[in-house]
Amino acid sequence: MRSLASRHFFFIVSLIWLAGTAHAGTLSGTVINRTTGKPEPNVALDLLSPTAGMAEVASTKSDAQGRFSVTQDAIGTAPILVRATFHDVSFNTFVPPVRPTVEVDVYEISQDPRAISVPSHVIIFEPRDGKLVGAEEYQVQNSSEPPVAYFRTEGNFDFAIPQDGALGQVSATTSSGMAVPQASIDKGKGHFAIAYPFRPGQTNVRLSYGLSYANNAAMVKLPATYAGAKILVVVPPGVTVAGDGLSAAGQEQGMMVYTHEPLPAKGTFTVNLSGVASAQAASEGQGDREEGNSRQGGPEVIAAPSRLDNFKWYIFGGLAALFAMSAILLSRNQVIIAGAAAEEGPQAAPAKKAGTAPAKTKKTAVVATPAAPSPGAPAKIAAEVESQVAVTLESLKDQIFRLELRRQAGTISKDDYEREKSRVDQILREMVQG
Length: 434
Prior knowledge:
This protein has 434 residues and is an alpha+beta fold. The protein has helices spanning 2-21, 279-294, 307-317, 377-409, 414-433, and strands spanning 26-33, 38-39, 44-49, 55-61, 67-71, 80-86, 89-95, 101-106, 109-110, 116-128, 131-142, 149-150, 157-160, 166-173, 179-181, 185-188, 191-194, 201-212, 217-223, 230-235, 240-242, 246-252, 255-260, 268-274, 329-330, 335-336.
């Protein structure tokens, strides 16, 4: 009994310490040019608050050695997004509140389209209220050597949606899980583009659109922009799918999966859809929407639920939402938020609110005794920890499902699959043991 009481006392003291020390805000780091492998001097840096609508917290520049340091009250109390502007292109780095130092990566820019490839293309359809909502995800791989970011101001990633489709949201998401909305460039006749700096590694481009679904049936002609991409078509149970070249590939998380062989560039294939989601699928979708609505009390940019569940949220709701994989990892004894870089082009840079003056940088002194927390601070922090644990479990669920989709699509080797699965299993074990 005494041991249990001492644990509770230690936990409460830890929360009070966390609440008090959260106000000491200094973020230091180095800007690294990953193309050259050297520190990059004189890079403009803006510190933005994802929890406050991307309001600017502070700004600075890297010195001759690429280093920077900023002290401001808001740092340490919430996540920070560091936006580095290099060659007129924005490279973003997500920094959790518990991380006092960070390396900000920037890259030299290439305009060569051979810098990227598109190994897979996932298409999800969901009938809803007499309409057909489509959601697509392109996996984009940049394997350039030496590493460079691929970018063109006039648009460097092309995509097409079915004829008569109404384009909704477009976003780009890196391994950090932070979805960055993108402005679409209309090229006419259902063809669009975005201007986005694809850094080395994997980026997912996600988009949504609406189609007519008269009499609960539609014939959808799907265009292919990139040659050689493995194609997956996903629908809920109750929807009948037919089309040349489509093969049933089983079921994943309550959704039916079909595969199609890669198409040549500018090729097309037709999918015939009919019916509506079964009562069970609709019930699951309603539950997902309610769960999603319960999470909308916080900022949208840092909420990172399961990718397929997010597909289902905006598919069932007919909304152009963002689907993102979580960048937050937690243990029960301390909050560990693993952030990585997500970047955006100049067009996607967050705008300041009209009539609002930029936040002034206020330096704070480091004191030996932490500031006294408010009476409700420990309970509030405990609630936030519990909420983020749930988000992490959804993230792990998403990562496992994503691995299975990639395995079915043949876009991941057996060794890489086993390695990634072992990593996710280890995270889960640590959470359970923590």
